[in-house]
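Let us work through a complete example step by step.
Step 1: write down the sequence.
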Amino acid sequence: MKSSQQLHFVRHKIDVSSVLAWHLDGPRPGVENTADDGAMLKFHGWLLYEPIYRATIWVEEEGRRHNFELNIERPNVVEQKLGVSADKHPLRRCGFQFEVPVFNKPFIFGFRVNGQLIKVLEGRWLTPQQIAEIERPRKTSVWQRFKP
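Step 2: predict the structure and record it as tokens.
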């Protein structure tokens, strides 16, 4: 019997001035892996970046990089995050939605802004026990806690 696996993310800190804000609406961590090898995983969210640049989204699995455009209008994001009218704003199309075949495979999710590849997160399929072990706080000795 195959053990149950869930999607686990490791987020990378991004300190790139051209990225203003972003959000991955889905997939969410903890999604159960109940699909077969040929199944697709749906990604959707948004990216706000300095509008003087060009931006795309990418997902890499097993050495293959899949590139996607920001092609969904998200005026609500522009208005809420930037505090301006989205009527004619250049970032009105800041949303994305696509599917890639990454069930049962580790993957990397990122952005390309102004030609720079930015790794945002890594996804892996793990058992609940593996996830609990990763997220369990590490114990420190008395000496480590009081070290100046």
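Step 3: interpret the result. The chain has a mean pLDDT of 87.
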